[in-house]
Amino acid sequence: MNPYISIVIPVYNEEGNLANLFDRLYPVMQAMGKPFEIILTDDGSRDRSLEILKGMVTKYPEVRVVEFNGNFGQHMAIMAAFEVSRGEIVVTLDADLQNPPEEIPKLVAEVEKGHDVVGSIRQKRQDTFFRKTASLMVNIVTRKMTGMKMSDYGCMLRAYHRNVVNNINRCQEASTFIPALAQTFAASPSEVEVAHAERLEGESKYSLYKLVRLNFDLMTGFSVVPLQLFALLGILTSLFSVAFALFLLVRRFIVGAEVEGVFTLFAILFFFIGITIFGIGIVGEYVGRIYQEVRRRPRYVVRKVHGGDDVR
Fold first, then answer.
1. Can you tell me where the transmembrane regions are (predicted)?
2. What is the DSSP letter of 185?
3. If residue 104 lies in a helix (H) or strand (E), which one and from where to where?
4. Could you tell me which of 195, 74, 32 has the C-alpha nearest to residue 124?
């Protein structure tokens, strides 16, 4: 019997949270009274997470564990679980319990109303000021660059209809951001408000560098707006340069030769060089993504899938 709901959870160094996660998640899924499966991807954990997950496989017949042969990132871990999922509704959930499993029925009910992608908006976020500010910036920039209407890109508690998951599985990009990718396939997206809790064990896996990297992935993976903006900036800069050159020519005839403004000219030159280097960086980002795609290397390597096919 195929499951009706698939719960997908990426795991990386979460040994302190896994027991509590199952203590809360399992009763929620049983109370819903529908066939379900729980798929966890161990993303190369260096602690006892994989050992604990293997123990869950023997204890719960609904549990399957995808074991990665290294660390490939949160979104690749979710993609790997999508590949083996079978549910009509697929719900993604982080293992750190900042998004309560008790909110899952709310998302499932929204999908059953006819929505194919259901996002979530975290209420009263229990994160640091830095995390809140970084997330706010990512949300604003992504909405402006991609035109997608999502309130909270950083919350991974989301639900997808099987049709959307199948379309995601057909995509083979070397790097991607699943909520934005799902949004491109959504015919009737929706959002619900969910609770948010403070992380009790472990630490966040997103450093400042990873947050910046995520923002670049969002901008260059789902939009060419950065290139268009830089092209527009190049046109405006060229027009300004021509006007400034004419100004200097006229000034030379009126005032004569002078050297007092040489440092101003250097400052202007450095400004334009900075713009040029910034533009080259944007172009390089797109070229780098193309390079990753044409190599056609595996996005992730699965060492083994633990767990059987029996689903209650």
1. 229-250, 262-287
2. H
3. helix 104-112
4. 195
Q: Is residue 149 part of a domain?
A: yes
Contact in structure between 148 and 180 (CB atoms under 8 Å): yes
Same domain assignment for residues 90 and 236? no
pTM over 0.85: no
pLDDT number for residue 269:
75
- 217 lies in a domain? no
Q: For residue 117, which of 73, 171, 169, 158 has the smallest C-alpha distance?
A: 158
**What's the rounded Cα separation, in Å, for the pair 189 and 52?**
35
- What pLDDT does 312 receive? 42
Do both 55 and 157 map to the same domain? yes
Q: What is the pLDDT of residue 290?
A: 78
- Domain presence at residue 243: yes
33 token code pair? 């009274």
> 169 and 255: one domain?
no
Q: What is the pLDDT of residue 310?
A: 44
129 and 273 inside one domain: no
Extract the residue ranges of the chain whose pLDDT is less than 70: 125-151, 153, 199-225, 228, 238, 248, 252, 255-264, 266-267, 308-312
Q: 172 and 53 in one domain?
A: yes
Bridge partners, 121 (sequence order):
193
Which residue range forms the structural domain that includes residue 165? 5-203+298-306
Asked whether the beta carbons of 301 and 83 are under 8 A apart, the reply is no
Q: What pLDDT was estimated at residue 125?
A: 63
